[in-house]
Amino acid sequence: MYSLSWLILFLPMAGFLGLAWFGRYIPRSVGGWFACATVGGAFVVTLLQLVQLYAENPADRLNHVLTLYPWIVSEGFSLNVSILVDPLSVFMLLVVTGVGFLIHVYSIGYMHDDPEYLRFFSYMNLFIFAMSLLVLAADFFFLIVGWALVGLASYLLIGFWTDKKSAVLAARKAFVMNVIGDVGMVIAAFMIFEHFGTLNYVEVFKAAPTTFSSNDDGILLITFLLLVGAFAKSAQIPLHTWLPDAMEGPTPVSALIHAATMVTAGVYLIARCNALYMMAPFTMYLIAAVGLLTALFAGSIAMVQYDIKRVIAYSTMSQIGFMFLAVGVGVFSVAMFHLMTHAFFKALLFLGAGSVIHGMAGEQDIRKMGGLRFVMPVTFITFLIAALALSGFPLTAGFFSKEEIIMNAYHAEFGNFVYWGLAVIAVGMTGFYTFRMFFYTFMGNTRSPELRPHESPRVMTAPLMVLAGLSLAGGFLGPWTHDFLSPVFGGAVPVHHEDAMLEIIAVSAALGGIVVAVAIYMTGKGQLAFVKQMLAPLYELLFNKYFFDEIYDFLIVKPVKGIGQFMEERAEKGGIDFSVDEIGRQVREVSRGISMWQSGKVRMYALNMVAGMVTILLFVIFL
Amino acid sequence: MGSEFVLFVSATVFSIGALGFVIRKNPLVMFMSVELMLNAVNFLLVGYSSFLNSLDGQIFALIIMTVAAAEVVVGLAIILTIFRTRHELDVDHINILKG
Amino acid sequence: MMEFLDQLWSLNLDRETVFGLFEQGLVFAIGMTAILASLGVILCATPIYSALYLIVNMMCLALLFLLYNAEFLAAVQVIVYAGAVMILFLFIIALLGAKKEKRDLSFQNLAGLGFVGLLFCELLMSMMVGETKPVEGRVTLEVVQQVGSAKAIGIELFSHHIIPFELASLLLLVAVVGIISLAKFSNKQLRKRTRF
What we know:
The complex is a heterotrimer of chains A (623), B (99) and C (196).
Chain A: H1 6-22, H2 28-54, E1 64-74, E2 77-85, H3 87-110, H4 117-136, H5 140-158, H6 165-196, H7 201-211, H8 217-234, H9 242-245, H10 251-260, H11 265-272, H12 274-277, H13 281-302, H14 308-328, H15 332-359, H16 372-375, H17 377-391, H18 397-411, H19 417-442, H20 458-473, H21 478-485, H22 500-521, H23 525-534, H24 536-543, H25 548-595, H26 602-622
Chain B: H1 3-23, H2 27-51, H3 56-86
Chain C: H1 2-10, H2 15-43, H3 47-67, H4 71-96, H5 107-124, H6 141-147, H7 149-159, H8 162-184, H9 188-193
Helix pairs in contact in C: 2-3, 3-4, 6-7
């Protein structure tokens, strides 16, 4: 059964290539369903792998490496194209292919009127392939290949509407930011090869405890460089600026790549390399600190944004911050659990937002929405469920996962009180911004009747309903997740900390956020203006996203541009171009001189022949 | 007479032929100079064939004569063709070989 | 006259030596004539004289061939060169009209003179190796004299050198085709390319 796992890679790849090559010969509808079918097939194969894993003892579930073929074999280094099937990769793949399948189905409705419908689906299949490669890789090499390929797919999909300038610029920004991370990853891979002599996960993780002692320089550097890649891909401070801009792409893309799967790859990477990270507590502190900072930072920005997708994007950053906090305090399976529930409700939020945008004919500003609860009932209810799950309302999926993170922020090995307190504040923000957006969108009276909002077709609402069910029930998968993933994380099952005091505070923070949102946005306009006036400087700061883009522009973009301009004028035109041109010019001059030799006069040629004969005879006689 | 005489005569005639080919402008005379050079070589071959008691030199000379005959015939035809188009016979005025 | 012969006789020269000396003198004289004739070829301003000098040169060489035991080649030289080729030359000269050529001391001529002088010196250096010692070859003079020069060459040609022989015939065929195409077809193409 493990031998089938290559199909997980092959099916989306076949979909991508098939649509890319033969897309113009097949009808649109067939192509769209074909793309869905490949992803669905990959999901089924992943389920088979899950069944197979369950047939074994927990301890035997690790390290099933399926070698497809040896790629590079040389002295001291060999690289196989191989697949690693273990609970972590199967768990991650279930999320990727499962949510990916739902979003593919949703896209059939959402992208229905797009002229380049099949190009979109071929890119989506490429993304699923790349993500599966990233997850299934059995060594750091193919991890980086997949890592770069998801970056490529993300680039292609953000810039899918190539006639939209902001989308193209956003795609470029995302690509550049991701490349910074890729560089870190590649250097980390080189260092791993230097220290361990192999890139293979199994061998590296086995050798790690004997090669390094805790907090060695080498392991700190490796983990930090891997972390750069993780930060860039998961949009953590300071490499986060691309994610909000990435919302320029089609909404299913935002749901699939920039909420559910790709941006969580950083969490997956750290969980995968837990053997390395557990030996570098300093890096763990860094992860937790950055995660918390991002959670607070993004949450605060989300409170004042008006673009519905940007609000959700900042919320995504904030939630990934929570996941980083979880891995930072050493409870990896809790992070993976939150990754799963987050994939459910955040994909649902995005798809709901997409449904709203679809119904509003492309309008994204929440100030122009409102009152949609009557015209879009399915979207309204599913969106409400997602909003509740996101803010951690009791008994929804988000409640369980987030509660575990907050508990572990205090009780876990690396946890402390500061983490807990800041996390609670971030939870409060989550409740506030989620329901602010929700109230703006669905409650009150309609503000743009001329747009004639309408409910989306069944093919779009069906995935919403499935995801809504998962967002409600996903929380009960927690114990199963911890149990299933425990072999990967050294057999550790996170203890459920019974601390009623902390729990009550956390839940009341979440509910408090919601209540504040109700108080400000549901009881009339007066309070809103009052609050805005009270906190005007803070509001300005948040609305401009802490001026991060401006700071980067001033610190990095402008100097680099200046240097580039200087170099172009001085070094390029005056030096390189000039020397190249001059060589060409001189060659032309010299050959013009030589070409006079070719006078066309036979006697001259004869004379040259005689001269040549004389020279050759000289050599014959005297040498 | 010995081989030095043969060498001397053929070297002299060959050089004179080469000189004629270089300094003359009339293509007919240039061809004659080529004939001189070929004849010089033939003489060398025949003379040495006699010194070395081998007929290979003579056969070589025979084949050179064949080649020379063919070359002269083609060359003269070319000269004739050029003359038909240009009505003059000065190789210095023919420079369509120029690139 | 008789006294001179007596004196020669008194030097005790036998018949062989006298004939040997005579032959050497003859060879030398013919060789010098050939050189002078070739000088005449290149120095005459009128092509017709050049052609006549060339005939002289070829006849001299034919005589030398005879003296170096190559009777067949001597005959071929006279028939092919002095006969056919030179007749062709004379025809062409008659056809195109012979014009005197101006002589000058241009760079071309001076450089040609210099280079050819160098070439001549280099060629003369081959004389420094000295006399060639006769080697015992496959075909000695006696054998040739037994069967006759033409027959000996024929045997040699058809036994050891058949492929060059056939190739030479092919060459002649190609030459024939080339001449026909040059002479027969119009030369508009050529005219078009010519810059006047």
